[in-house]
Amino acid sequence: MAARHAEPPILASASAVRARLLAAAGVPVEQIASGVNEDRVKAASGGLDHDALALALAEAKAAAVAAAHPGRLVLGADQLLVMDDRRFDKPRDLGEAAAHLTAFAGREHELVTAAVALRDGVVVWKRTERARLTVRSLTPAAVDAYLAAVGPAALASVGAYQLEGPGAQLFERVEGDFFTVLGLPLLALLEFLRGEGVPAWAC
Amino acid sequence: MAARHAEPPILASASAVRARLLAAAGVPVEQIASGVNEDRVKAASGGLDHDALALALAEAKAAAVAAAHPGRLVLGADQLLVMDDRRFDKPRDLGEAAAHLTAFAGREHELVTAAVALRDGVVVWKRTERARLTVRSLTPAAVDAYLAAVGPAALASVGAYQLEGPGAQLFERVEGDFFTVLGLPLLALLEFLRGEGVPAWAC
Question: Fewer CB within 10 Å, N or C, chain B?
Fold first, then answer.
């Protein structure tokens, strides 16, 4: 089936982490940022539960890119952070990052990670997964020291942490798939892609 | 407490992955390979269960290095792969790697990861953790294709796979902490190190 995929899948995301996860597993992708306004999708999705919203955002991104690329397999992804049923959006500045981390300290939250594959406007695969993370007790000084050590990189992820970097210092416990924490339900996505003949050596 | 540690911890291991995990979390280490003959330790530890053996190996490595570095904090680590109570050692060649992966296919196995901290011959901290992995069904051809894609890098880890690389293609399911899979009970080790004042910004 490899011949169907002389062209690589398109990842409708600017995320370097997601592209790196796929490339490391042997799936190079073409990255095209979707330009989707996430706030608008969220505002229009008031009634959805968290998993459905994450899927809706992933699909909106994939659909925006797929429209201009007929026949191509387009992947979209999204990640939401939920604590006590409240969603936390990506912090806009370091002050907001500090407020979020202070809220997470000593408590559990969940990351809801969704991915969707689209071809010619049709959803051909989708998946959500959840991971549960416990942040250790953090004094305000510890939060400030962490943000000073990490700098603006803290603003790149929904939780203001990178578990694969200094963010590991913030956690007491991580339950669930690591790839889900990083932003893709990778093992399930790879299974789907193998069914599509990608990458040829793994099929 | 940071003043106690003008000198970084020593990692009694040649493992690039372990050094990278610690450095990413803000803990640079000095790496000194222990030169310990693991086969000899295993032969002398016939009666130990898997966790105790992994700890004994981690401690043997740390002790060998600590002897020459009085006063320094020395970290040792080890990882065992266990399936149906049978231990699988690191494959010696690609033929053995293929045999191991064929044995793992369609089944669950465990990684037992141990770490020990020593100072002046005294164990000041230790920990084992386990992760459970399910390898998908693999034909002999799929095993060969994987090993051809990965090459001799397959011989670098006890399971002949790197989950953070093409090895992700082999798995159906991974339960347990990702750092434990990579070779260190990292979150617990970081908690211990913070108690030792390392790194200063996280304490």
Answer: N
Q: 3-state SS string over A159-202?
A: CCCCCCCHHHHHEEEEECCHHHHHCCCHHHHHHHHHHCCCCHHH
A201 closest CB neighbour out of B136, B145, B173: B145
Do B146 and A177 lie within an 8 Å CB cutoff? no
Scanning every residue of chain A, which has its alpha carbon at the shortest distance from the alpha carbon of B203? Answer: A142
**Cross-chain residue pair B178–A173, CB shorter than 8 Å:** no
* Bridge partners, residue A173, by sequence: A134
Give A108-145 as a DSSP string: EEEEEEEEEEEETTEEEEEEEEEEEEEEPP--HHHHHH
Do the Cβ atoms of A26 and B149 come within 8 Å?
Answer: yes
What is the rounded CA–CA span in Å between residue A200 and residue B169?
A: 12
Q: Looking at this predicted complex, what is its ipTM?
A: 0.89
Minimal CA–CA distance to A164: which of B20, B189, B158, B6?
Answer: B20
pLDDT in tens, B53-94: 999 999 999 999 999 999 999 999 999 999 999 999 889 999
CA distances from B144 to A78, A147, B147 (A): 34, 46, 5
Sequence-ordered list of residues with C-beta below 8 angstroms from that of B202, at least 6 positions apart, any chain: A142, A145, A146, A149, A166, A169, B26, B190, B194
Residues listed for chain A: 203
Q: Decide: helix, strand or coil at residue B52.
A: helix
